[in-house]
Amino acid sequence: MAECQPTEQNKWDGPATYGAAYHGPHRRRTDLPEKPGLREKGSVRLQSINGIIAAVACMISLVLLATIQRKQTLIEELIGADGTAVELLRDLMERQQALTGVLLLVVLVEVFCVVTLILWPIEEYIDRIRASKTLPLRGSYELRYLAKAYNAMFEENMLRNEELRYKVEHDALTGLYNRGAYEKLLAEHGREGSIALLWIDVDMFKSVNDTYGHDIGDKVLQKVARLLAGDFRATDYACRTGGDEFAVIMTEVSPDQQQVVMSRVRAVQEGLRDVSDGLPLVTLSIGVAFSDQRQEGEELFKMADKALYRVKEAGRNGCSFFNEEDRKTK
After folding, report:
1. DSSP secondary-structure letter at 116?
2. pLDDT of 31 higher than 50
3. pLDDT recorded at residue 53
4. Fewest CB atoms within 10 A around its CB: which of 43, 95, 280, 281?
């Protein structure tokens, strides 16, 4: 059985983490305008531009109608007159054609504005909503405002889902992954590559509760959790699987890297020996088993549990690795 003696060698000094799956709450980055009349750079009020275009179209139409009426009156007056009537009629027809062209241009401009400021942004919004993404601030002022409102609700919903997921996956007392998350992580990473499972018991924890009370017992569990989260690697997952039971899933580690595991264990044991915080001294019993993608999660747990049982049989306060001799025992 490998003894877990404190050492400064190979001490991990990376950031404390509870695993990479949760990144914590984030701030909402979008704020709606406080006043409806507030315009943003590059924004266009669709209602205003449509009103202007409609007014211009009406004015041109009225001018066109008046011109046509005038032409009819002149034709009636010039019937039978000299050849100047032909010139007048030709001039009136040219003006009518020009006014008709202007009216057509106005209509085309309005269609272009509707397409670029409404239809295209809406199509893009639909695609991004289907892809569960925030909306870009494009198009008319009204669409930009709606995009901001949607983005605010989207981020608020994502934040709530993230917080709910955290509560579902994490232990309320220690902040570590809970039993349900542990089982999912073990199944997921056990299929991906070589991992090590550390099954951990806090020695004689019941006596801590009986002697010092449950409040102190909770603080001891929090201290153990903090050390497990801080002294293992950022790619590892520390979990609380029961009352005084913990587990650590170390990713991308093979059976020939026992020293890597031991260096992390020694750092945790050293931290527990520091009682300057006023908490009672506790020790850990740890069983370790390696997976090479051939073991299911339950089988790997049984292997680590056998190694842990051997530590307890030897008097607790130690760390042991599953070996071939353990395969022969029931």
Report:
1. I
2. no
3. 76
4. 281
Closest CA to 253 of 196, 301, 300, 296: 196
Fill in the amino acid letter for 25: P
- 11 lies in a domain? no
pLDDT band at 328 (very low <50, low <70, confident <90, very high): low
The verdict on whether 91 is a catalytic residue reads no
**pLDDT at residue 8 above 50?**
no
Q: Could you say which of 171, 201, 236, 244 is catalytic?
A: 244
- Bridge partners, residue 93, by sequence: none
pLDDT by residue (tens digit) across 97-144? 677 778 778 877 887 888 888 888 888 898 899 988 999 988 888 888
* Per-residue confidence (pLDDT) for residue 50, from 0 to 100: 67
Same domain (yes/no): 222, 247: yes
Q: SS3 for 24?
A: coil
CA angle 185, 190, 193 (to 5 degrees): 120
Asked if residue 93 and residue 138 are part of one domain, the reply reads yes
Q: What domain range includes position 200? A: 174-328
User: Cα separation of 75 and 105, whole Å?
Assistant: 29
Largest CA distance in the chain: 130
Q: How is residue 247 annotated by DSSP?
A: E
- Region 53-60: mean pLDDT is 76
Question: Do 157 and 182 have their domain in common?
Answer: no
CA distance 247 to 270: 18
Residues 6+ apart with CB under 8 A from 124: 135, 136, 138
Residue 317: inside a domain: yes
CATH code at position 275: 3.30.70.270
CB 289 within 8 A of CB 308: no
